[in-house]
Amino acid sequence: MGITIPNDFICPWCWVGLLQAKHLEEEFGAHIEWLGYELFPEELEWPDHAPGPEPPANRPPTLTRFDFLLVADDIEMPKSERPRKMRTFNAHEAVEYAKTEGVAGQLVEALYRAYWERGEEINDPAVLRRVAEGIVTDLDALDHAVATKQFKANIVGFDDEAYSKGVYNVPTFYIGGVPYAEQPYANLRKAIVN
After folding, report:
1. CA pair distance 125, 77, nearest whole angstrom
2. Over the stretch 21-39, which tens digit does the pLDDT of each residue have?
């Protein structure tokens, strides 16, 4: 079974999506196709989020949608300090090159782990090369692809371009052609079993 997943490395929902995809591969032998959807392409300015108001002291804490997902899937987020306001275009370029060698899935996982578990700047070409060592055979060709933006047409930027393709959230799992965005594993499993 083939499953297509638009994703971006800096998205916490996508870190969970990586773990879910690995589980789908193990449980169902699913073949995952990773599509690069850059949340903050160069032409999009970074938003500055002001902290919200403090809740009343007597209000019990409530879980966010994301917190519910972590509980439902029994996942703890990595605690590493990660780069802030990091673009991901080069990382997506590297994955597109890895597709030409048939090793995209391995590189995607290595890049997610480098960013989320070790806090590495995975958009830096030198870091990309180091992370790709032992996965990609022709590292010079990978460097060339990143430097020349060889696969730019395959990488989708948010917001307008992604929305025009029907992707409003990452990750979105396309299972049997049906999109499942930001879902717990149980729902993804049901989509395959049913």
Report:
1. 26
2. 999 999 999 999 999 999 9
47, pLDDT greater than 90: no
- DSSP class of residue 152 equals G
Tens of pLDDT along 84-135?
899 999 999 999 999 999 999 999 999 999 999 999 999 999 999 999 999 9
34 vs 25: CA distance, rounded Å: 13
Q: Specify whether the backbone of 149 is left (phi greater than 0), alpha (psi in -120 to 50) or beta.
A: left
Q: Which residues are within 8 A (CB) of 58 and not within 5 positions of it... i.e. 6 or more apart?
A: none
- Alpha-carbon span 98 to 108, nearest angstrom: 9
User: Is 99 exposed, middle or buried, given 0-12, 13-18 or 19+ CB atoms closer than 10 A?
Assistant: middle
Q: What tokens were used for 71?
A: 């509980």
Query: Which residue carries 């019990």 as its tokens?
Result: 60
* First and final C-alpha spacing in the chain: 13
Give the predicted TM-score (pTM) of the model: 0.94
The sign of the torsion formed by the CA atoms of 76, 78, 84, 87 equals: negative
